[in-house]
Amino acid sequence: MSPKVDLSAARWFKSSYSGSDGGQCIEAAYDFVDAGVVPVRDSKDPGGPVLGFSTDTWQAFVSAVKSGSLPAL
Hints:
This protein has one helix at residues 55-67, and strands at 12-14, 26-29, 37-42, 50-54. It has 73 residues and is of the alpha+beta class. The chain has one domain (12-66). InterPro entries: DUF397 (IPR007278).
C-alpha cells in the first residue's frame, strides 16, 4: 500500500457470511476510511500482504457484490 499506513492497531472485519470452516475469506480494516483507504487481506494469512483500495473503489465493489452484478468466474 502506498503511502505507508501503520496497520499494527487495525481492527479487521470479516463478513458474517464467512463460514467457520476457514474458507476463502477476506478481511477489511475500516479504521482508515477517513484517510481514504480500505486495507484488505486474506483472513487465512493475516501476516501476509495487504491491498489498499480507495474508499470509492471499495464501495463500488461492495455495491456490485450486494447487487449480484459481478460476472461469474
